[in-house]
From TrEMBL, chains A, B, C, D:
The keyword Transmembrane does not apply. Pathway: Metabolic intermediate biosynthesis; chorismate biosynthesis; chorismate from D-erythrose 4-phosphate and phosphoenolpyruvate: step 7/7. It is an enzyme of class 4 (lyase). This reaction introduces a second double bond into the aromatic ring system. FMN binds at residues 131-133, 251-252, 296, 311-315, 337. Its cofactor is FMNH2. It comes from Kyrpidia tusciae (strain DSM 2912 / NBRC 15312 / T2) (Bacillus tusciae). This is Chorismate synthase. GO terms for biological process: amino acid biosynthetic process; aromatic amino acid family biosynthetic process; chorismate biosynthetic process. One of its GO terms (molecular function) is chorismate synthase activity.
Length: 388, 388, 388, 388
């Protein structure tokens, strides 16, 4: 059985979203305010449409926590959908459909709509989009925040920054990763290069005016990751594989990189690998981190660096051609309200999934049942490492 | 429990590699000659060093098959390491280490060597590299060949082609995917663009002369995938996430894309999504396949297209700086024998992992216990789909 | 990944219990009234104490269902703890402990109390008992009711009856299994032998007067199970092993049997095995069902019959000796309010876990994504079976 | 992912049986001689037929071990079927069936034969029985021996003794568990009560003369299990449920008990629960162990005690009625060679499965990657426990 696992649930316009996280050690401080803070970060960013203002997500924890400390039992988080009152009859859990609940019959290109209708034999595209919607990344962010709070006592910190939107690339970064983190947090497009940020905002505004949408690339960095998470012993234990799987599972993500990523494919070997040094005080050292902190599927003690490419949101003002699933007639899919760019929000979801995978691998190595026990295990290992 | 699962085992210079595949339906024809054919494909490609000639892998099936048909029971595959005779004492399973088995103490940058030593508390880097070695992808190819033979009766075919090596990009492709498959198969670098292939060969030869290594990018395509594999219902059920996780788990892979991948992040929404048409005979149609056959984490009936970026092999003739784990002294890591480029081989491994993930998702949808039952399930579903 | 999985959460005196069930097909009718009916059955039975009157459990479904049909997405069920108002401060999720929340320091023999304190490093036994409590079987019953509703369209029906309480054995049963089911449902001790039932009631009343508690044995029967669920192909796929694991996981269960169970160990082989007949209309037939419907880990088409032994509830009016975890002083553990016998309730939980395991194995064989697809798969298989 | 997992494979008359164990820490001593010793124990016991003499199982380890220490990588074990030479053509992996390979068409009551034929759509009962055969418990014993060797450095020792055969019960036991272990080891029926053992041997001889078979009950005891393995936090984490599931998955097992088991259902609460004492030197103490070392699904530091009921072997000299699957004609199933009683052997398999589950739960608590790390984790926890 997995050391740490979660299930999430919830429809986009249903009463609420729910997540259960199982496998936390006992006596770990978890603060709902910190989860709310992550939920808030997910709802921000230049380029979001109207719905973000309706939602102002707050988590309610209903199990697994007492007086702010975990009990070692499953943690339940609920996030109410603030709009539920308006959807009560159209999304009623039981009872007959009301006359106003007309089925959605127009699948949108680029969404799960058509594939979902075929797979699940639905007559109403709403039955697909309610769950495939990016709204549901709110639970992932909540789960990720719990993972962060598990990693925090061990000095592991995760941040993200946007490196590209609609073809505009960030180029000038602050010197340290900590500074990049701080700069990104202050930017409305989560970009640490102020000049590029400005151009990204312009590109988004321009796209909005044209009824178009933009994608981009974000980078997630984890600091303080100890060496030895993940394994090469079996393919499914590798840290890089699990990170890639988790990031690619976020809505609209179409590419994932670790370290140099695709750039590594273009360089000769002599420029790609991170030479190894040794310092009596710090242990093994590296001057570069092209590997993104992972060699052979195992964390090597350097910052873990991953990147993900998000496609533009497929819900466009500009019409795309599609086919009505009942009449089979062609139509022009267009919408009245949507986000123009959600890359800064997706970066926050990316942080959450990265935190989750790191927490999972962390728990596989430090499996103690109470925070005190996990700490003792961590110390014992770090002491062993320091002697190597 | 998983519908379909495998474990692989084996050290690079141990007696043999082993794989067990569990969850196959009964009465499925499996031919070891087809597995051998895939093993052979993995061992080819311009840019390989000497070892490939020592190995000439053949599979031996020792369970799960009788008279060429699966029994519904676990299938065991053994691949002997031809070089074992020379390693018998240095890699002895039991008994004391012989005097000649001096520990390897020099971790190579870019390999699992150092991270593995720290994680597993090894004194001998050999204890890491024997398993982290790409040699072990032979079992993945064998497992993938079984997956292919499971998918074949349903018209699902998987091929790969190399689209970039050392910065040289393939640009002119044959018209159809089938033609690309055929052209790649004839190329020593598995590249369907003959001009690019020639330049790739030159780049490899040049790199070899310089004691350097090259990476690249390959694309895997799956034809005949029915709509409805994978799911948006829970993040870990998504087809794209699982494909990315499996591909990133292959040695030396640092990036993965689905469909347009990173390019999608640079284009406006109006140019990214695949418009939907309808043809009374064929059902829903698409003129483009930017999504790579996956929308919302679910296959949509189009060819599934993924790409992976491989870094250059880190074992260089050109020295890289590293540190002896015993003496802590710096040294220049250099080797006498190695591959220069293994991208064409990695592409074959990529096919295998793609086949595995598709087979897994296929089994989750068509879970019958005998081939006849799986076929009846497949037919019933395709008939339902055709009526939508 | 599992075809069907669930997570449950919730503390006994926390705000609510939660369950998420993932892996249901779409378009399956689920009625919360049927879940409530099962929750009600769990709360009944002669021998229950006061708390059962406080609780009157009702489920609230908050995801996965629309207009009474599943969406193919995770189903969330919430069951509020009616007593929560009185526990709000002592079980507060966050904030400091109030002065009145004195830690429980007296572990009760026969409960998880002491083992839980040691494992999770708790200072307060309440942090253990809140989750280890049998209160949490309410979620299992809710999950089981969903499983029943998945199995019902395929004619699979599950019932239970109590065959022993405090040494009083049921002996005279109605002729058919259906009649046993009906008789048990009418009995306050869920016993189909009215004479034995009367003696069981007396034994319970006597035990209550003496401040003692009673255990017993219940039997769960599943009718309509098709042949071929479970497998001998790998140990963890066996139906009998999974049923035993699930039943033994219910609080206070100390023994599990399939079919003849321990009696089979005492009889010669000639009296144990169920001879096979054939009827052109019905197919293969059996005159006996000593195997309890499972041969070689696979259902054989006969009713599945399992039994479980429940120990007496360890919370006694009669004192048991224990040790305060803070002072290490010995004390006499006694309580003021408790159930005397919970075997009839446990039987309902046993039905739920049996339903769950059958649903799991059913989904592994009939994995379709919509109810229509599952039905087509079921029909195709049953038709194949009828031709054998 | 599971901390520790295995897959086994192999047909009874195929070339060999195989097992892969994944998730072992590195640097753990594993001796194949200790595995062979367990394989030998499985092949013994009064009441076995001729095949046991053909087989004389020896394991060959082909991966995961070097110079007698684990590498932290998957461990492969092969056990050759000595009879393979005689079955080469009838059980050929590939190629056409030879004329002499006539299908077995007569399913034996009490075996997986008929259920397996229906499930997997086989025409030849041999395709079922080859894998459902108890022969395959050899791999479980090998896997269990590895688990034992993982637990041994932590003072955990597992033994078994037969407490009942064919209705003959063991009654007088040596005083200590260690003495019971030793006495059982010396008995040809693995029974620690010499008088009962003699009667068991007589009962077996009598049954053999009558062409009948006998079942029985064995007990498995694990000494030195630390408190805190398993959990009440989620049903599937419970130690008792996992033990029951594993034991019930052994061929021919129909009942499982923990501690008092079914007897607990008959006693009043005041006689069932183990009172808790405290000794400044030893910590918490118990005078009794009715719980079998598990309370609330968690080990409590007492010996873990489980029992399993084995039905008589269904392969009888005495004929049982069955039906030919091709002709549908009734026949009398009888055999020429078989065991009369395999309870002593099953007890050894029971030890193996108990060892496996304990190792699994042990690894979930002490997940270190090297033996040194696991030891540090174990010490840190035991020290924490000693302070409670």
């Amino acid at each position: 059985m997995r050391m740490l696992r979660f299930l999430t649930a919830g429809e986009s316009h249903g009463p609420e979203l729910t997540a259960i996280v199982e496998g936390l050690p006992s006596r770990l401080p978890i603060r709902s305010a910190l989860i709310d803070e992550q939920l808030r970060r997910r709802q921000q960013g230049h380029g979001r449409g109207g719905r973000m203002r309706i939602e102002s997500d707050r988590v309610e924890i209903t199990s697994g926590l007492r007086f702010g400390l975990t009990l070692g039992t499953p943690l339940t988080m609920r996030i109410r959908n603030r709009d539920w009152e308006n959807w009560k009859t159209k999304m009623a859990v039981e009872g007959d459909p009301p006359p106003e609940a007309k089925p959605v019959t127009k699948p949108r290109p680029g969404h799960a709509d058509l594939a979902g209708v075929l797979k699940y034999n639905h007559d109403d595209v709403r039955n697909v989009l309610e769950r495939s919607s990016a709204r549901n990344t709110a639970t992932l962010v909540a789960v990720g925040s719990v993972a962060r709070q598990l990693l925090a006592p061990f000095g592991i910190r995760i941040f993200s920054h946007v490196v590209e939107i609609g073809g505009v690339e960030a180029k000038k970064f602050p010197k340290t990763l900590e500074q990049i983190a701080d700069a990104a947090e202050l930017s409305t497009v989560r970009c640490a290069d102020p000049e590029a940020a400005e151009k990204m905002v312009e590109a988004i505004d321009q796209a909005r005016r044209e009824g178009n949408t933009l994608g981009g690339v974000f980078e997630v960095v984890a600091l303080g990751v100890p060496p030895g998470l993940g394994s090469y012993a079996h393919p499914d234990r590798r840290l890089d594989g699990r990170l890639a799987g988790a990031l690619m599972s976020i809505q609209a993500i179409k590419g994932v990189e670790v370290g140099l990523g695709f750039t590594a494919a273009r360089l000769p070997g002599s420029e790609v690998h991170d030479e190894i040094g040794y310092d009596p005080e710090k242990g093994y050292t590296r001057d570069t981190n092209h590997a993104g902190g992972i060699e052979g599927g195992v964390s090597n003690g350097q910052p873990v660096v991953v990147r993900a490419a998000m496609k533009p949101i497929p819900t466009l003002y500009k019409p795309l051609r599609s086919v009505d699933i009942h009449s089979k007639e062609s139509f022009q899919a267009s919408v009245e309200r949507s986000d123009t760019c959600a890359v800064p929000a997706a970066a926050v979801v990316g942080e959450a999934m990265t935190a989750w995978v790191l927490a999972l691998c962390f728990r596989e190595k430090f499996s103690g049942d109470s925070l005190e026990e996990v700490k003792a295990q961590y110390r014992a290992y770090m002491e062993m490492v320091s002697r190597r």
